[in-house]
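Hi W., the magnesium ion complex you wanted:
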Amino acid sequence: MKISILGSTGSIGRQAIEVIQKMPGFFDVVSLTGGSNIEVLRQQIKLVNPSNVCVKSENDALLLKKEFPKINFLHGDEGLIDIASDTTNERILVSVSGKTGLKPTLAAIENNIDVALANKETLVMAGDIVMKRAREKGVKILPVDSEHGAIHQCLSNRDEVEKLIITASGGPFRNSSIEDIKNATVEQTLHHPRWNMGKKITIDSATLMNKGLEVIEAHHLFNMPYDKIQVVVHPQSIVHSAVEYVDGSVIAQLGFPSMHIPIQYTLTYPHRFEGIETRSFDFIKAGRLDFEAPDMEKFPCLKLAFEAGKQGGTLPVVMNAANEEAVYAFLDKKISLWQIYEITKKMMDAHKSITNPTLDEILETDMIIRELTKKSTSK
Ligand code: MG
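Structure:
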């Protein structure tokens, strides 16, 4: 399988390289792209020997070219799109973070390349456009997100689905009081009980905005109305998500909380192989599985996401942009954790949503809201 990894130095990208290394002879890595973490990229180049590499800055590209003269180096957003459009690829993994994922994903679809998609912002911002084009071109969008990977595995006949059940670990503040959440420090918020992830998604997991983004993601991926998507808190993170059918049967996907398994699934789909996961799942060791309703008072971001998703248009774009910039401001200790919700809600309330937005309208809305949010969060 000829594949490329966009965002290979991030958390998902690094784990994808681990999966690839455990399956020698299976993958041929065409291209890697990284931002500015040149040290990690240098190691990955030596491990998988790609033909092309894209980095953020031209300087880094020139520097690496001297070290690896046989490799073709590209840079910037255009380089990223060139790599995503390269029809040598049979599949690309889009694991870049934030809105950077949108254009390369569309470029791959235009060139009939299947996409393993780890970038949920792409669907939150432009799910209608992306999924419509993928259907028209017959391109597969394979979700890396563990919940959506689970649902993908549980779906047999979509016409007979009653609802999707998306599980949530509940994050570090599941048992905290609302006061404690309001006063949470960056360090407390970054301490996730189950998953080791990048900073942005870890903060989103603490506010349950991540689950909200996943609800919108699920709506687009599986073409499911919002009233048929249920979020259930499941602190053990063993059940990764489930599908209920019209006859009352529920099919769930279970396993260790490990991103290696869903990453490998999207890279080898429709087949399964022995790979990086060598442990056998043990129900007896897992012992018990708990489930509870999410607390919308303590985690109002989840409510915002359902509202944004149901209204559609550019409202999810606004929510995504405001939330992301507010998360960065929180990480910079400029605002409190609770203000992420307050600022995002304020931006959503003030926005006049555009129905059926074009890609340009989406990108413009995204830019304006980011500027406004940065202004309102700078001291
Ligand atoms: Mg997830």
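The chain has 17 helices and eleven strands.

W.
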